[in-house]
Amino acid sequence: MSSPLRVGPLRNARLLDAEPDGTPGPADLSGPEIIEIAEAAGIRGRGGAGFPLAVKLRSVASAPGPVRYVIANGEEGEPASVKDRFLLRERPDLVLRGLELAARAVSADRAYVYVSDPSAARRLAAKRGDTPADIPVDIPIGVVAVAPGYVAGEETAVVRAVDGGPALPTVKPPRPWQEGVRGAPTLVSNVETLAQLALAVRLGPEAYRGMGTPESTGTFLATLSGAGRAPGLYEVPYGIPLRELVTAHMGTAAGVTGLLAGGFAGGLLPASALDLPLTHAALARAGSTLGCGAFVLLAGDCPVGVAAEVAAFFDRENARQCGPCVTGTSGVAGVLARLTVRSATVEDVARLERWGAALAGRGNCATPDAVTALVGSLFRHHRDLVDAHVGTECERCAATDVTADTRFRVSWEGS
Protein backbone atom coordinates (compact mmCIF):
# COMPACT_ATOMS: atom_id res chain seq x y z
CA MET A 1 0.00 0.00 0.00
CA SER A 2 1.42 3.37 -0.95
CA SER A 3 1.92 6.17 1.55
CA PRO A 4 1.70 9.92 1.03
CA LEU A 5 5.15 11.45 1.01
CA ARG A 6 5.99 14.84 2.47
CA VAL A 7 8.83 16.54 0.60
CA GLY A 8 10.48 19.63 1.96
CA PRO A 9 13.72 21.40 2.79
CA LEU A 10 15.21 22.25 6.15
CA ARG A 11 17.02 25.58 5.95
CA ASN A 12 18.42 26.26 2.45
CA ALA A 13 17.67 23.44 0.01
CA ARG A 14 19.62 22.84 -3.18
CA LEU A 15 18.56 19.51 -4.58
CA LEU A 16 14.87 19.94 -3.77
CA ASP A 17 14.68 23.53 -5.00
CA ALA A 18 16.85 23.07 -8.10
CA GLU A 19 15.15 24.14 -11.30
CA PRO A 20 14.87 21.16 -13.65
CA ASP A 21 16.20 23.24 -16.54
CA GLY A 22 18.39 25.58 -14.51
CA THR A 23 21.78 26.87 -15.49
CA PRO A 24 24.05 23.83 -15.77
CA GLY A 25 27.32 25.61 -15.00
CA PRO A 26 30.43 25.80 -17.16
CA ALA A 27 30.20 23.56 -20.22
CA ASP A 28 33.87 23.67 -21.16
CA LEU A 29 35.47 22.17 -18.06
CA SER A 30 38.17 19.58 -18.65
CA GLY A 31 38.19 16.21 -16.90
CA PRO A 32 40.93 17.21 -14.42
CA GLU A 33 39.08 20.46 -13.64
CA ILE A 34 35.90 18.53 -12.80
CA ILE A 35 37.85 16.23 -10.48
CA GLU A 36 39.46 19.24 -8.81
CA ILE A 37 36.01 20.73 -8.17
CA ALA A 38 34.78 17.45 -6.67
CA GLU A 39 37.82 17.38 -4.38
CA ALA A 40 37.66 21.04 -3.39
CA ALA A 41 33.93 20.74 -2.67
CA GLY A 42 34.55 17.66 -0.50
CA ILE A 43 31.77 15.63 -2.13
CA ARG A 44 31.26 12.26 -0.48
CA GLY A 45 29.12 9.41 -1.78
CA ARG A 46 25.46 9.49 -0.82
CA GLY A 47 24.83 5.81 -1.52
CA GLY A 48 25.99 4.44 1.82
CA ALA A 49 29.74 4.37 2.43
CA GLY A 50 30.40 8.11 2.14
CA PHE A 51 33.53 7.54 0.05
CA PRO A 52 35.14 10.68 -1.45
CA LEU A 53 33.93 11.14 -5.03
CA ALA A 54 37.20 12.69 -6.24
CA VAL A 55 39.12 9.55 -5.23
CA LYS A 56 36.77 7.35 -7.25
CA LEU A 57 36.97 9.68 -10.25
CA ARG A 58 40.78 9.71 -10.19
CA SER A 59 40.94 5.94 -9.81
CA VAL A 60 38.90 5.38 -12.96
CA ALA A 61 40.52 8.22 -14.90
CA SER A 62 44.02 6.87 -14.21
CA ALA A 63 43.21 3.18 -14.71
CA PRO A 64 44.92 1.63 -17.75
CA GLY A 65 42.90 0.80 -20.84
CA PRO A 66 41.44 2.54 -23.87
CA VAL A 67 37.76 2.25 -22.78
CA ARG A 68 35.92 3.45 -19.66
CA TYR A 69 32.31 3.51 -18.48
CA VAL A 70 30.25 5.41 -15.90
CA ILE A 71 27.04 4.25 -14.23
CA ALA A 72 24.53 6.33 -12.28
CA ASN A 73 23.28 3.85 -9.66
CA GLY A 74 19.62 4.50 -8.88
CA GLU A 75 18.68 1.00 -7.71
CA GLU A 76 17.14 1.86 -4.36
CA GLY A 77 17.01 -1.54 -2.70
CA GLU A 78 16.96 -0.04 0.79
CA PRO A 79 13.32 -0.38 1.96
CA ALA A 80 13.43 2.75 4.13
CA SER A 81 14.76 5.14 1.46
CA VAL A 82 12.99 7.08 -1.27
CA LYS A 83 15.55 9.75 -2.20
CA ASP A 84 16.88 8.16 -5.40
CA ARG A 85 13.39 7.60 -6.77
CA PHE A 86 12.57 11.24 -6.07
CA LEU A 87 15.64 12.52 -7.90
CA LEU A 88 15.15 10.27 -10.91
CA ARG A 89 11.47 11.16 -11.21
CA GLU A 90 11.54 14.84 -10.24
CA ARG A 91 15.11 16.04 -10.91
CA PRO A 92 16.36 13.82 -13.75
CA ASP A 93 18.18 16.73 -15.43
CA LEU A 94 20.37 17.20 -12.38
CA VAL A 95 21.26 13.50 -12.30
CA LEU A 96 21.96 13.40 -16.05
CA ARG A 97 24.07 16.54 -15.80
CA GLY A 98 26.13 14.99 -13.01
CA LEU A 99 26.48 11.78 -15.00
CA GLU A 100 27.75 13.71 -18.02
CA LEU A 101 30.26 15.59 -15.87
CA ALA A 102 31.52 12.35 -14.31
CA ALA A 103 31.83 10.79 -17.76
CA ARG A 104 33.89 13.74 -18.93
CA ALA A 105 36.03 13.58 -15.79
CA VAL A 106 37.10 9.98 -16.44
CA SER A 107 37.06 10.18 -20.27
CA ALA A 108 34.29 7.58 -20.49
CA ASP A 109 33.07 6.15 -23.76
CA ARG A 110 29.54 5.35 -22.61
CA ALA A 111 27.28 6.00 -19.63
CA TYR A 112 24.34 4.17 -18.09
CA VAL A 113 21.56 4.95 -15.63
CA TYR A 114 20.75 1.84 -13.61
CA VAL A 115 17.26 1.69 -12.08
CA SER A 116 14.62 -0.66 -10.70
CA ASP A 117 11.79 1.86 -10.43
CA PRO A 118 9.55 1.71 -13.55
CA SER A 119 8.38 5.30 -13.08
CA ALA A 120 11.97 6.53 -12.94
CA ALA A 121 12.87 4.51 -16.04
CA ARG A 122 9.96 6.06 -17.96
CA ARG A 123 10.87 9.55 -16.78
CA LEU A 124 14.49 9.10 -17.83
CA ALA A 125 13.53 7.72 -21.23
CA ALA A 126 11.22 10.66 -21.84
CA LYS A 127 13.78 13.19 -20.66
CA ARG A 128 16.81 11.67 -22.33
CA GLY A 129 15.37 10.81 -25.72
CA ASP A 130 17.84 10.07 -28.47
CA THR A 131 19.59 13.45 -28.46
CA PRO A 132 18.33 15.56 -25.54
CA ALA A 133 18.46 19.23 -26.35
CA ASP A 134 18.46 20.49 -22.76
CA ILE A 135 21.32 18.36 -21.42
CA PRO A 136 24.84 18.77 -22.84
CA VAL A 137 25.70 15.10 -23.45
CA ASP A 138 29.02 14.20 -25.03
CA ILE A 139 28.53 10.41 -24.93
CA PRO A 140 25.62 7.97 -25.39
CA ILE A 141 23.57 7.25 -22.27
CA GLY A 142 21.62 4.05 -21.84
CA VAL A 143 18.98 3.13 -19.25
CA VAL A 144 19.30 -0.33 -17.69
CA ALA A 145 16.24 -1.52 -15.72
CA VAL A 146 16.38 -4.46 -13.31
CA ALA A 147 14.06 -6.06 -10.78
CA PRO A 148 14.36 -4.45 -7.34
CA GLY A 149 16.45 -6.19 -4.70
CA TYR A 150 18.44 -5.31 -1.61
CA VAL A 151 21.74 -6.49 -3.11
CA ALA A 152 20.98 -5.33 -6.67
CA GLY A 153 22.53 -1.93 -6.01
CA GLU A 154 25.89 -3.28 -4.80
CA GLU A 155 28.49 -1.99 -7.25
CA THR A 156 29.61 -5.36 -8.62
CA ALA A 157 25.97 -6.43 -8.96
CA VAL A 158 25.40 -3.25 -10.98
CA VAL A 159 28.27 -4.08 -13.33
CA ARG A 160 27.12 -7.68 -13.66
CA ALA A 161 23.59 -6.60 -14.60
CA VAL A 162 24.76 -3.99 -17.11
CA ASP A 163 26.81 -6.75 -18.71
CA GLY A 164 23.64 -8.79 -19.11
CA GLY A 165 23.96 -11.06 -16.08
CA PRO A 166 21.96 -11.32 -12.84
CA ALA A 167 21.98 -8.34 -10.47
CA LEU A 168 24.05 -10.20 -7.88
CA PRO A 169 27.42 -9.27 -6.34
CA THR A 170 30.68 -10.87 -7.41
CA VAL A 171 33.90 -11.65 -5.57
CA LYS A 172 36.17 -8.65 -4.93
CA PRO A 173 38.78 -7.77 -6.03
CA PRO A 174 38.67 -6.67 -8.74
CA ARG A 175 36.57 -3.61 -8.01
CA PRO A 176 34.66 -1.94 -10.84
CA TRP A 177 37.23 0.86 -11.10
CA GLN A 178 39.73 -1.86 -11.99
CA GLU A 179 37.56 -4.19 -14.08
CA GLY A 180 33.95 -3.24 -14.59
CA VAL A 181 31.63 -3.28 -17.60
CA ARG A 182 33.10 -5.51 -20.30
CA GLY A 183 36.28 -5.73 -18.22
CA ALA A 184 36.97 -1.98 -18.54
CA PRO A 185 37.47 0.54 -15.70
CA THR A 186 34.03 1.66 -14.56
CA LEU A 187 32.76 4.35 -12.22
CA VAL A 188 29.63 3.32 -10.30
CA SER A 189 28.18 6.28 -8.42
CA ASN A 190 24.88 6.86 -6.63
CA VAL A 191 22.47 9.23 -8.40
CA GLU A 192 22.40 11.67 -5.49
CA THR A 193 26.20 11.81 -5.51
CA LEU A 194 26.13 12.73 -9.20
CA ALA A 195 23.43 15.34 -8.60
CA GLN A 196 25.71 16.82 -5.93
CA LEU A 197 28.53 16.96 -8.47
CA ALA A 198 26.29 18.94 -10.81
CA LEU A 199 25.49 21.35 -7.96
CA ALA A 200 29.14 21.76 -6.99
CA VAL A 201 30.04 22.68 -10.57
CA ARG A 202 27.12 25.10 -10.76
CA LEU A 203 27.78 26.76 -7.39
CA GLY A 204 31.55 26.49 -7.17
CA PRO A 205 33.41 24.65 -4.38
CA GLU A 206 33.47 27.55 -1.92
CA ALA A 207 29.72 28.17 -2.08
CA TYR A 208 29.06 24.43 -2.01
CA ARG A 209 31.01 24.10 1.24
CA GLY A 210 28.97 26.93 2.74
CA MET A 211 26.68 24.31 4.26
CA GLY A 212 27.54 21.21 6.23
CA THR A 213 30.73 20.57 8.19
CA PRO A 214 34.39 20.50 7.15
CA GLU A 215 34.39 16.69 6.85
CA SER A 216 30.81 16.27 5.64
CA THR A 217 30.14 19.11 3.23
CA GLY A 218 26.93 20.31 1.65
CA THR A 219 23.46 18.87 2.09
CA PHE A 220 21.93 15.42 1.77
CA LEU A 221 18.50 13.91 1.33
CA ALA A 222 17.07 12.19 4.41
CA THR A 223 14.07 9.86 4.39
CA LEU A 224 12.14 9.68 7.68
CA SER A 225 9.44 7.09 8.33
CA GLY A 226 7.87 5.07 11.12
CA ALA A 227 6.33 6.10 14.45
CA GLY A 228 2.88 6.07 12.86
CA ARG A 229 3.58 9.09 10.66
CA ALA A 230 3.53 9.43 6.88
CA PRO A 231 7.08 9.26 5.51
CA GLY A 232 8.96 12.42 4.61
CA LEU A 233 11.91 13.35 2.42
CA TYR A 234 13.99 16.30 3.57
CA GLU A 235 17.09 18.08 2.37
CA VAL A 236 19.29 18.87 5.35
CA PRO A 237 22.80 20.23 5.86
CA TYR A 238 25.28 17.80 7.35
CA GLY A 239 25.89 18.48 11.02
CA ILE A 240 22.41 19.37 12.26
CA PRO A 241 21.18 17.35 15.26
CA LEU A 242 18.99 14.41 14.39
CA ARG A 243 16.49 15.71 16.94
CA GLU A 244 15.96 18.85 14.86
CA LEU A 245 15.12 16.78 11.80
CA VAL A 246 12.79 14.48 13.76
CA THR A 247 11.02 17.44 15.36
CA ALA A 248 10.50 19.06 11.96
CA HIS A 249 8.99 15.80 10.73
CA MET A 250 6.81 14.90 13.71
CA GLY A 251 6.29 18.18 15.53
CA THR A 252 7.99 16.66 18.57
CA ALA A 253 10.56 13.98 19.29
CA ALA A 254 9.05 13.12 22.67
CA GLY A 255 7.44 9.86 21.57
CA VAL A 256 10.48 8.43 19.77
CA THR A 257 11.88 5.47 21.72
CA GLY A 258 14.62 4.47 19.25
CA LEU A 259 15.39 4.20 15.57
CA LEU A 260 16.91 2.24 12.74
CA ALA A 261 19.74 4.36 11.33
CA GLY A 262 21.16 4.44 7.82
CA GLY A 263 18.16 2.49 6.61
CA PHE A 264 18.54 -1.13 7.70
CA ALA A 265 22.35 -1.03 7.51
CA GLY A 266 23.13 0.89 10.70
CA GLY A 267 21.33 -1.23 13.25
CA LEU A 268 19.25 -0.09 16.19
CA LEU A 269 19.98 3.07 18.15
CA PRO A 270 18.36 4.24 21.40
CA ALA A 271 16.44 7.48 21.80
CA SER A 272 19.60 9.17 23.09
CA ALA A 273 20.93 9.04 19.51
CA LEU A 274 18.56 11.89 18.69
CA ASP A 275 21.23 14.22 20.06
CA LEU A 276 23.81 13.06 17.51
CA PRO A 277 24.85 15.48 14.76
CA LEU A 278 24.14 14.10 11.31
CA THR A 279 27.65 13.42 10.05
CA HIS A 280 29.42 10.28 8.92
CA ALA A 281 31.89 10.48 11.82
CA ALA A 282 29.26 10.97 14.53
CA LEU A 283 27.18 8.00 13.41
CA ALA A 284 30.31 5.86 13.10
CA ARG A 285 31.33 6.73 16.66
CA ALA A 286 27.88 5.59 17.77
CA GLY A 287 28.52 2.21 16.14
CA SER A 288 26.18 2.95 13.25
CA THR A 289 26.24 4.59 9.84
CA LEU A 290 24.61 7.50 8.10
CA GLY A 291 24.29 5.20 5.10
CA CYS A 292 21.73 6.29 2.56
CA GLY A 293 20.31 8.91 4.94
CA ALA A 294 17.19 6.91 5.89
CA PHE A 295 15.88 6.77 9.46
CA VAL A 296 13.03 4.57 10.72
CA LEU A 297 11.63 6.07 13.90
CA LEU A 298 10.34 3.71 16.57
CA ALA A 299 7.62 4.67 19.04
CA GLY A 300 7.14 1.92 21.60
CA ASP A 301 8.16 -0.88 19.21
CA CYS A 302 9.99 -3.78 20.85
CA PRO A 303 13.62 -3.67 19.68
CA VAL A 304 13.77 -7.48 19.60
CA GLY A 305 10.73 -7.63 17.34
CA VAL A 306 12.14 -4.92 15.10
CA ALA A 307 15.45 -6.77 14.83
CA ALA A 308 13.61 -10.00 14.01
CA GLU A 309 11.70 -8.32 11.19
CA VAL A 310 14.82 -6.72 9.70
CA ALA A 311 16.74 -10.02 9.95
CA ALA A 312 13.89 -11.84 8.19
CA PHE A 313 14.15 -9.29 5.38
CA PHE A 314 17.90 -9.83 5.12
CA ASP A 315 17.39 -13.60 5.05
CA ARG A 316 14.99 -13.29 2.13
CA GLU A 317 16.98 -10.66 0.22
CA ASN A 318 20.55 -11.96 0.52
CA ALA A 319 22.26 -13.13 -2.66
CA ARG A 320 22.42 -16.79 -1.58
CA GLN A 321 25.84 -17.14 -3.14
CA CYS A 322 27.95 -17.46 0.02
CA GLY A 323 27.81 -19.52 3.19
CA PRO A 324 27.66 -16.50 5.52
CA CYS A 325 24.47 -15.33 3.82
CA VAL A 326 22.83 -18.70 3.30
CA THR A 327 23.49 -20.14 6.75
CA GLY A 328 24.59 -17.22 8.92
CA THR A 329 21.80 -14.81 8.07
CA SER A 330 19.25 -17.60 8.25
CA GLY A 331 20.51 -18.67 11.66
CA VAL A 332 20.34 -15.14 13.03
CA ALA A 333 16.85 -14.60 11.63
CA GLY A 334 15.68 -17.90 13.10
CA VAL A 335 16.85 -17.16 16.64
CA LEU A 336 15.39 -13.65 16.59
CA ALA A 337 12.07 -14.99 15.33
CA ARG A 338 12.02 -17.57 18.12
CA LEU A 339 12.72 -14.87 20.68
CA THR A 340 9.53 -13.09 19.64
CA VAL A 341 7.38 -16.17 20.27
CA ARG A 342 8.98 -17.34 23.54
CA SER A 343 10.62 -20.43 22.03
CA ALA A 344 14.30 -19.39 22.11
CA THR A 345 16.70 -20.79 24.68
CA VAL A 346 19.69 -19.41 26.57
CA GLU A 347 21.87 -21.40 24.17
CA ASP A 348 20.13 -19.73 21.23
CA VAL A 349 21.00 -16.31 22.64
CA ALA A 350 24.64 -17.32 23.02
CA ARG A 351 24.70 -18.57 19.43
CA LEU A 352 23.05 -15.36 18.24
CA GLU A 353 25.72 -13.24 19.89
CA ARG A 354 28.49 -15.43 18.47
CA TRP A 355 27.06 -15.57 14.95
CA GLY A 356 26.48 -11.84 14.86
CA ALA A 357 30.13 -11.09 15.56
CA ALA A 358 31.42 -13.78 13.18
CA LEU A 359 29.57 -12.56 10.07
CA ALA A 360 31.40 -9.24 9.67
CA GLY A 361 33.41 -8.93 6.46
CA ARG A 362 32.14 -12.22 5.04
CA GLY A 363 30.52 -12.80 1.66
CA ASN A 364 30.38 -10.87 -1.61
CA CYS A 365 27.99 -8.15 -0.49
CA ALA A 366 27.41 -6.06 2.61
CA THR A 367 24.45 -8.05 3.93
CA PRO A 368 26.54 -9.95 6.53
CA ASP A 369 27.94 -6.61 7.73
CA ALA A 370 24.41 -5.25 8.08
CA VAL A 371 23.39 -8.33 10.07
CA THR A 372 26.43 -7.84 12.30
CA ALA A 373 25.47 -4.20 12.90
CA LEU A 374 21.89 -5.22 13.70
CA VAL A 375 22.78 -7.96 16.18
CA GLY A 376 25.62 -5.95 17.73
CA SER A 377 23.38 -2.95 18.33
CA LEU A 378 20.66 -5.14 19.83
CA PHE A 379 23.05 -6.61 22.40
CA ARG A 380 24.82 -3.30 23.01
CA HIS A 381 21.67 -1.31 23.76
CA HIS A 382 19.10 -3.94 24.74
CA ARG A 383 20.93 -6.93 26.25
CA ASP A 384 18.58 -7.18 29.24
CA LEU A 385 15.58 -7.12 26.93
CA VAL A 386 17.02 -9.93 24.79
CA ASP A 387 17.53 -12.09 27.88
CA ALA A 388 14.02 -11.27 29.08
CA HIS A 389 12.54 -12.75 25.89
CA VAL A 390 13.83 -16.21 26.82
CA GLY A 391 10.83 -18.08 28.21
CA THR A 392 8.75 -14.94 28.64
CA GLU A 393 6.07 -13.67 26.29
CA CYS A 394 6.51 -10.11 25.03
CA GLU A 395 3.16 -8.43 24.48
CA ARG A 396 4.62 -6.02 21.96
CA CYS A 397 6.13 -8.84 19.90
CA ALA A 398 2.96 -10.91 20.14
CA ALA A 399 1.01 -8.04 18.59
CA THR A 400 3.19 -8.02 15.44
CA ASP A 401 3.95 -11.05 13.30
CA VAL A 402 7.54 -11.29 12.10
CA THR A 403 7.60 -11.23 8.31
CA ALA A 404 10.19 -10.63 5.62
CA ASP A 405 7.71 -8.32 3.86
CA THR A 406 8.72 -5.54 6.20
CA ARG A 407 6.29 -2.93 7.43
CA PHE A 408 9.18 -0.46 7.43
CA ARG A 409 9.20 -0.20 3.64
CA VAL A 410 8.56 3.30 2.31
CA SER A 411 6.15 3.17 -0.61
CA TRP A 412 5.66 6.13 -2.89
CA GLU A 413 3.61 6.31 -6.03
CA GLY A 414 4.81 9.83 -6.82
CA SER A 415 4.59 11.02 -10.40
UniProtKB/TrEMBL annotation:
Keywords: 4Fe-4S, Iron, Iron-sulfur, Metal-binding. Residues 1-30 are annotated as: Disordered. SUPFAM superfamilies: Nqo1 FMN-binding domain-like, Nqo1 middle domain-like, Nqo1C-terminal domain-like. The keyword Ribosomal protein does not apply. Belongs to the complex I 51 kDa subunit family. Residues 304-349 form the NADH-ubiquinone oxidoreductase 51kDa subunit iron-sulphur binding domain. This is NADH-ubiquinone oxidoreductase-F iron-sulfur binding region domain-containing protein. InterPro entries: Nuo51_FMN-bd, Nuo51_FMN-bd_sf, Nuop51_4Fe4S-bd, Nuop51_4Fe4S-bd_sf. The keyword Iron applies. It holds the Pfam family Complex1_51K. It comes from Microtetraspora glauca. It comes from the Bacteria.
